[in-house]
Design a protein that fits this description.
The chain has 277 residues and is of the alpha/beta class. The protein has one domain (4-275): Protocatechuate 4,5-dioxygenase, Chain B (3-Layer(aba) Sandwich), CATH 3.40.830. It is built from seven helices and ten strands. The strands form three sheets. It has a six-stranded mixed beta sheet, with helices on both faces. A two-stranded parallel sheet has the order 3-6. A two-stranded antiparallel ribbon has the order 4-5. α1 crosses α3 and α2 packs across α4.
Length: 277
């Protein structure tokens, strides 16, 4: 396959799975799912992963990490007891980052580059990737959740990732690091309400059955009614990349990986659409 987004996926990141040895039993299926998802996307031989995180939050502008190498220590600022300091060393992809930032600016989407050597990863970036690519071999470009971005703008960003992948002839995996329903509660063992679980199950079933257009049509209502994480911004980026894949005629396979599981009232699963072999 020529340059394109070859997978558009959702990856959970609850900090309770950051330290596998201390992860609660109910979260073990999420770890298994991330590993299975990682194996599936690595089998597509991607040149890079673009991850839109729920926990790198900017207010006005999009930023694209343009580091040649990401290196530092991840601390979960909201739960430092769970992730007190996990080192990472992962290649970046400056050429893709710069091309994506330029394309977004051309679309009048406010965007800049994140190039500071002091930049450090949030746990929404680190948690899924250290399971999906434990050898840290696939280059990574990170995107934030932008508070002032409407969901349609987030879709346009996902579509732009596909356009730049085509332009640069690179195989790209788009990852939305987020939960599904996300009306959080105190108590890690607590499930979403029955109504929210029903919305999650519908989302999962549409993916599992490969019903691409129905999922695209369902996504805005899901983001609203399921109280999606960060207002549905990461999910909308994933949907935008999926729209671009479908518009390009990419044969798609919907898959769910591991278990659907709770974490403090949120619903979590690894899932997405991969280019069919």
């Amino acid at each position: 396959m020529a340059g394109a987004v070859v997978a558009s996926v959702v990856a959970p990141h609850t900090p309770r799975i950051g330290n596998e040895a201390a992860a609660p039993p109910f979260a073990r299926g999420l770890i298994d799912g991330l590993r299975e998802l990682g194996s599936a996307v690595r089998a597509l031989r991607p040149h890079l992963i673009v991850l839109l995180s729920s926990h790198w939050v900017t207010t006005f502008n999009w930023y694209v990490t343009a580091h040649a190498r990401h290196e530092g220590v991840c601390i979960a600022d909201e739960a430092p007891d769970l992730i007190p300091g996990s080192p990472y060393r992962v290649p970046g992809h400056p050429a893709f980052a710069k091309a994506l930032a330029a394309r977004l600016k051309a679309l009048d989407v406010p965007c800049g580059l994140a190039e500071s050597p002091h930049f450090s990863w949030d746990y929404g970036s680190w948690v899924p990737l250290h399971y999906m690519d434990p050898a840290a071999q696939v280059p990574v470009v990170l995107l934030p959740s932008v508070v002032c971005a409407e969901l349609e703008e987030c879709r346009r960003v996902g579509q732009s990732v596909h356009a730049v992948a085509q332009e640069l002839e690179l195989r790209v995996v788009f990852v939305a690091s987020c939960a599904l329903s996300h009306k959080v509660l105190r108590g890690p063992e607590r499930w979403p309400s029955e109504a929210l679980q029903a919305l999650d199950r519908r989302f999962l079933e549409l993916v599992r059955q490969g019903r691409v257009q129905e999922l695209i049509d369902f996504a805005p209502a899901f983001c609203r009614d399921a109280v999606a994480e960060m207002g549905g911004r990461p999910l909308s980026g994933m949907i935008g990349a999926l729209q671009a894949m479908a518009a390009a005629g990419t044969p798609l396979q919907g898959r769910c990986f591991g278990a659907y599981a709770q974490s403090s009232g949120s619903g979590n699963a690894a899932l997405g659409f991969l280019a069919a072999s």
